């Protein structure tokens, strides 16, 4: 059974989330502050962490950073709960590498769907080792799908699980425009649209990590993104 750690200091929300995840067949652990949550993360190594941004003491952003800096816990996907849409860039964007976010107030159903989608794709990616094409090479970028490792000019790229899946999807469909909905569907596992901003922020972060090689990912205005077929 998948283990989910929920970190939230508001008892009503914590209980609502715990109840709904339980109903969906997930094993739920809870913590009301980041200190205790960080202990639990080390003890139980959950399959997913649902993390409130605003916590007393160590806040959700710091906790997220600590988890992503620790080699033992870096792979654990994080779904952030946030009260404001404006915070989204900070969360999935620049330095943090959270995998997804939900803006409060959210419906329990939406949260459960998001949690299940993240669990599906984090488990799906670790099973891809048996696929026939193990290595992908495109310009300066090489991807070892079995080892879940991307290389840029031979040097390892530090990508989150989502960034890795996004890069693979773009490369495998190179030369063809991918709409944001398309990418949401394939990479995030969402069957609905309206989260194009999530795609944009992840593309931006991926491009930052690719440096000069980011020119391989083209923006197709008003449509989406396309990975080049060949060097220009
Ligand atoms: Ca809170």
List the helices and strands and how they pair.
Blueprint: E1 3-7, H1 11-23, E2 27-31, H2 34-44, E3 48-52, H3 60-69, E4 78-82, H4 88-92, E5 100-103, H5 108-126, E6 135-138, E7 141-144, E8 149-152, E9 155-157, H6 161-172, E10 178-179, H7 180-188, H8 196-210, E11 217-220, E12 224-227
Parallel strand pairs: 1-2, 1-3, 3-4, 4-5
Antiparallel strand pairs: 6-7, 7-8, 8-9, 10-12, 11-12
Bound molecules: calcium ion.
Calcium ion (CA) binds next to loops.
What does this structure look like?
The protein is of the alpha/beta class and 232 residues long. The chain is built from 8 helices and 12 strands. It folds into 2 domains: 3-123, 3-Layer(aba) Sandwich (Rossmann fold); 131-227, Arc Repressor Mutant, subunit A. The protein has a 5-stranded parallel sheet with strand order 2-1-3-4-5, sandwiched between helices. It has a 4-stranded antiparallel sheet with strand order 6-7-8-9, covered by helices on one side. A hairpin with a 4-residue loop joins strand 7 and strand 8. The longest helix has 19 residues, at 108-126. The radius of gyration is 18 Å and the shape is globular. Bound molecules: calcium ion (CA). Calcium ion (CA) binds next to loops.
